[in-house]
Structures are given as C-alpha cells and as structure tokens.
Amino acid sequence: MRNPFLVFIVSLFLTLSCFAVQSDSSTQLPSQDPQFGRERQKDPTEEKMERDREKALNKQRQTSLQKDTDRLLQLATELKEYVDKTNEHTLSLDVIKKAEEIEKLARSVKGKMKGN
To answer: Which member of 57, 86, 101, 115 has the lowest number of beta carbons within 10 Å of its beta carbon?
Structure first.
C-alpha cells in the first residue's frame, strides 16, 4: 500500500524541482541570448543615449578642469605676490594657506584628469 503522505511529499518535491529548473533558465543575464549564449545586440537608440551621456559627462569634466586650472593660475599668481612681499625673516600665514589651497586644488585637477 502506498502511504498518501509519502505520495504527497514526492509529488511536492517533483513540482518544486520542475519549478526550480524553469526559474533557473529565466535567471540568465539580460544581455545574453538564452538560445546561443551570445550577447544580444543593444538597441541603437540605447547606444546613442549612452554615447550622448558620455559626451555630456566629458564636456562637463572638461569645463570643470578649465575652471579649476584658471583658479590654480590665479592662486599661484597670488602666492607669488605674497612671497614677493615677504623677506627672509617673515613668513605670512596667508602664504601657507594659499599653498595648501593650491595643493588641494592641484590634487583635484589631477584626479579629474585621470577620470576619477
């Protein structure tokens, strides 16, 4: 005689295992063709939007770099003027602050140039 509980457990196990197999096939990466495992072609409008976004980001980065380098030039000129006004016995706190500001801005510019 068959135990109804055992039949129920076996049928439940079979149902769940079939469901698991179906769900595994649906978890493929969206960029891959499920039949051949190849990457599917991107939509041309999607590619254009991505290129346009990258161009806009590059333009924004370039504008920021230009602004920062103009500021660096201004700070360096101010630093030179401060140093020219001092002598060997005086060191202005403004000179140190200006040098630190230049250093910080220069690191920022360097990072932007590297694409960070």
So the answer is: 115
